[in-house]
Specification:
The protein has five helices and six strands, in the order ββααββαβαβα. The protein has a four-stranded parallel beta sheet with strand order 4-5-3-6, with helices on one face. A two-stranded antiparallel sheet has the order 1-2. Strand 1 and strand 2 form a beta hairpin. Helix 3 packs parallel to helix 4 and helix 4 packs parallel to helix 5. It is globular, with a radius of gyration of 16 Å.
Length: 185
């Protein structure tokens, strides 16, 4: 599935056009607090859902619940529009539902009180997404809000041991480097 993201009248990213058809799409939103990163991410998610893609969002604050107003998105945890509690069990089942069944999901991660278990769960979820994508290659957009919470530059000030963050960083790198071949943005 080719996707197009419109960032303005004259700026369109089309996955059928060079360099994106060859290189794949990987997007990073960088900026200070309040600069519009989440707002732009939500626009990308809306465009992707409109084109038939599946979206997975990890968020520490309950910001993306409004996507449920127009699309069939499962809200896991959170305060607004929650469909089910976020339990740190069975990442493979969630990943299978995303890839095989095309269920878009929003995970509200602040509900998880154990930082080490959350990082382990997310890294395993990404591993299973990659595994299932090998056979299905479903168009998938992964949005990770506040990535520094999962993969900080240093473990200083965090509860989880350094190896947990190393595992998460490896999961991110695997997703970013292998994602193009597996239809993951």
């Amino acid at each position: 599935m080719a996707v197009k993201f419109r960032f303005g009248k004259e700026f369109v990213v089309d996955s059928d056009v060079e360099p994106w058809c060859r290189e794949g799409l990987r997007v990073a939103m960088l900026g200070g607090p309040g600069s519009g990163k989440s707002w732009n991410n939500s626009l990308i998610a809306e465009q992707f859902l409109t084109q038939g893609g599946t979206v997975v969002i990890f968020q520490p604050r309950d910001e993306y619940f409004t996507l449920k107003e127009r699309w069939d998105v499962l809200s896991v945890g959170g305060v607004h529009a929650k469909d089910m509690e976020f339990a740190l069990t069975s990442p493979s089942i969630y990943a299978k539902a995303v890839v095989e069944d095309g269920i878009s999901m929003i995970f509200y991660t602040s509900a998880a009180e154990d930082e080490e278990k959350l990082i382990e769960w997310v890294s395993r979820f990404i591993h299973y997404i990659l595994k299932h994508q090998e056979t299905h290659k479903r168009p998938l957009l992964l949005i990770l809000e506040e990535a520094q919470e999962y993969a900080p530059r240093t473990p200083s000030g965090h509860v989880a041991p350094p190896w947990a963050y190393s595992r998460m960083i490896k999961a991110f790198k695997d997703c970013f480097t292998q994602g193009r071949k597996l239809n993951i943005i």
